């Protein structure tokens, strides 16, 4: 089981779609991160309809407001190294997708059309008005793009942190069917694991002191005791697992939904940060030479080219390669992310 988990982690990390919820948790320090205390309780719980609530955590004051959107399977705490430093000079808000952090589960499909609507509703209900600077990591880049498309007068800047690229799944498949099929299969396995966790929670077989072969109740070692207690309480019910499974299963749709050949943001400040250590699929997962060649092309050509195209959405856009960094740039080099957000704010409007 542990070997399969390690291989699944390698693949999902390689493709920039890792989910930290269950079964593929990355190795974490066994002591609490002192910055995590800011996320031990919900912030503002916006009632977005149907009894559901979306959690929004805001810090600091000022204008514009910086909106932080996490990658697939992550929630506001992933910004723990970025949000507080930015909040010393600006108002900074992070939000949790449905079923993650302190946000309620959802029975709706968790594609980016639905999650972006949740984001919009939460900001409105929490009375967090523009102007906005949007900061999105990985999948969060999709929601940042869609939000900017819908609110062009309110969004005055954007920082995309190693973002997923529009039409990503078609580009991946075009480069190599073997690579695309493997990625699709592993994502399906992860969603199936989450649904097994949901089934066990529904029957009452998921318990703190019971066997947990799918690591349903696994939590990162950097969580504080208070946060562990809060998150374990949510993991004993099925809704969060089902919502997260839907988010994973929606990734193919997300990739297509965000495509817009007419998108352009004029002179809006836009910085794309690209990981120097690009998505690389290990040889043991793709043993054929043709598949390895396709994976290398995706890593070395398609991924950076997709980021160049995102930067070109603005006449003041640029794509910056972050030397020595992997996909989670905001955790590996948080002060650089803080600096680039500050730069976008200094650059001002369009």
Individual helix count: 12
- Supply the number of structural domains: 1
Strand order of the largest sheet: 1-2-4-3-5-6-7-8
CATH-level-4 superfamily name: Alpha/Beta hydrolase fold, catalytic domain
**Name of the top-level CATH class:** Alpha Beta
Averaged pLDDT: 88
What is the chain-wise order of helices and strands?
Answer: HEEEHEHEHEHHHHHEHEHH
Strand content: 5-15%
Rough shape?
Answer: globular
Query: Main sheet?
Result: 8 strands, mixed
| CATH topology description | Rossmann fold
What is the correct CATH architecture?
3-Layer(aba) Sandwich
The radius of gyration over CA amounts to 19 Å
Q: Stretches where pLDDT falls below 50 for ≥5 residues?
A: 1-7, 16-20, 22-28
- Number of extended strands: 8
Q: Give the fraction of residues assigned to helices.
A: 40-55%
The end-to-end distance, rounded to whole angstroms, is 52 Å
Structural class: alpha/beta
Outline:
It is built from 12 helices and 8 strands. With 350 residues, the protein is α/β, with parallel strands linked by helices. The protein has one domain (2-347): Rossmann fold, CATH 3.40.50.1820.
Describe the protein's architecture and organization.
- This protein has 350 residues and is of the alpha/beta class.
- The chain has a single domain (2-347), classed as Alpha/Beta hydrolase fold, catalytic domain (Rossmann fold).
- 42% of the residues lie in helices and 14% in strands.
- The chain is built from 12 helices and 8 strands.
- The chain has an 8-stranded mixed sheet, sandwiched between helices.
- Strand 7, helix 10 (289-311) and strand 8 (317-322) form a beta-alpha-beta unit.
- It is globular, with a radius of gyration of 19 Å.
- The termini are far apart.
């Amino acid at each position: 089981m542990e070997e399969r988990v390690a291989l699944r982690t390698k693949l999902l990390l390689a493709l920039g779609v890792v989910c930290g919820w269950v079964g593929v948790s990355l190795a974490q320090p066994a002591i609490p991160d002192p910055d995590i205390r800011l996320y031990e309780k919900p912030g503002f719980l916006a009632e977005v309809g149907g009894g559901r609530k979306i959690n929004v955590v805001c810090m600091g004051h000022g204008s514009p407001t910086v909106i932080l959107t996490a990658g697939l399977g992550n929630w506001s705490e992933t910004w723990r190294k970025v949000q507080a430093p930015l909040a010393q000079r600006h108002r900074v808000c992070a939000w949790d997708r449905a079923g993650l952090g302190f946000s309620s589960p959802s029975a709706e499909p968790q594609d980016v059309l639905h999650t972006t609507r949740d984001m919009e509703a939460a900001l409105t209900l929490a009375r967090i008005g523009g102007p906005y600077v949007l900061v999105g990591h990985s999948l969060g880049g999709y929601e940042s793009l869609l939000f900017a498309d819908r609110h062009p007068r309110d969004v005055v800047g954007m920082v995309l942190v190693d973002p997923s690229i529009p039409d990503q799944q078609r580009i991946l498949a075009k480069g190599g069917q073997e690579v695309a099929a493997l990625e699709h299969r592993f994502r399906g396995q992860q969603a199936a694991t989450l649904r097994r966790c949901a089934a066990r929670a529904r029957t009452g077989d998921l318990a703190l002191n019971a066997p947990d072969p799918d690591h349903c109740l696994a939590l990162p070692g950097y969580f504080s005791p208070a946060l562990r207690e809060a998150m374990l309480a949510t993991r004993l019910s099925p809704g969060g697992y089902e919502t997260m499974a839907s988010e994973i299963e929606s990734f193919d749709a997300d990739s297509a939904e965000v495509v817009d050949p007419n998108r352009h943001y004029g002179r809006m400040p836009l910085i794309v940060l690209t990981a120097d250590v690009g998505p690389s699929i290990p040889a043991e997962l793709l043993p054929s030479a043709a598949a390895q060649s396709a994976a290398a092309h995706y890593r070395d050509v398609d991924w950076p080219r997709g980021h160049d195209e995102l930067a070109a959405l603005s006449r003041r856009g640029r794509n910056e390669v972050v030397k020595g960094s992997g996909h989670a740039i905001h955790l590996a080099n948080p002060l650089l992310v803080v600096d680039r957000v500050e730069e976008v704010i200094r650059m001002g409007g369009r």
